[in-house]
Amino acid sequence: METLVVIALIGTAIIIFIRIFSGDETREKPRDNVFRDPMPSSVQVEVLGKHVEDRISNFHILRKSRHQAALEAHKARLDEIRLRRRENFLINVWYGLMGLPSAPQPESESHEERIWKAGMEGEAVAGAALRACLPDLSLLFSGYRNKKGEIDFICVTEKYILAVEIKNLNGTIKVSGDRWTRDKYDKYGNRVEVDLPIRDRGGRSPSSQLNEPADFLEHFMRSRGHETLKIRRVVVLTHPNARLESVNGMTIDGVCRVGELARLLKTLAPSMENGVPVETVGRLVRKDHAFHSAPPPRRRAV
Known about the structure:
Largest sheet: 6 strands, mixed
CATH class of the domain at 44-53 and 110-293: Alpha Beta
CATH architecture of the domain at 44-53 and 110-293: 3-Layer(aba) Sandwich
Oligomer: single chain
CATH topology of the domain at 44-53 and 110-293: Trna Endonuclease, Chain: A, domain 1
Helix content: 40-55%
Radius of gyration: 29 Å
Order of helices and strands: HEHHHEEEEEEHEEEHH
Strand order of the largest sheet: 1-2-3-4-8-10
Low-confidence stretches: 22-40
Strand content: 15-25%
Number of strands: 10
Shape: elongated
Number of helices: 7
Structural class: alpha/beta
């Protein structure tokens, strides 16, 4: 009997040894649905601004402050009830039977906050795709802004300068010039809304929202002696259920889903002057962003 036990222990040890030191068959296989950069990229990524993150943080701070105010009001209400119960027998019996008011619960995320969070997730997906698609020694800026608005990403390569606007839109997208609309579907695939205008708070379509700050940046670069520089413009759709139905008379260089980004970048016409270093353009982008992001100077008291 003891011999059988020893043999069983030795067999178990051998199996464990084989599993630990065997080849790729026992290693955990990567999941296909997780995005991974194919290789460590030499694309230089710079975060100029965090408008979306700051906006989401403000939502959280406001919810937390409102909840704290509600808790303080609830505590004051309980103090008042305790005082009244001591002074009035019937009130004491009433609250003894009915119970005290329950404490307020934290607010759930608003619809607007969920939209901003979805947009931030879309930007993260697009940023990873751009890093994988851009050639080595490129610059990738995020969060650039000027007085005309913000640009989600600016890519600077040896061949072109590219401004990218990210849209995390669920539905079928239709583009006609600067007019953008979408048909919205429910989770069962039924169309529930038709021709919804796609606009920001200022009433601008995605193409106008991208063109206005890109035109302003382009003008700034040309005023610094680079008169032939041109900024290409692309809108990238990051929602998995986004579809392009029709595109007519675009005022930008392209619109695509995030999975089609690599193919679109290969079709972009060059827009860089011959001999202009990538870093020279990068310095102009940083300088213009810093100028428009600086707080206004304080006025001296008279």
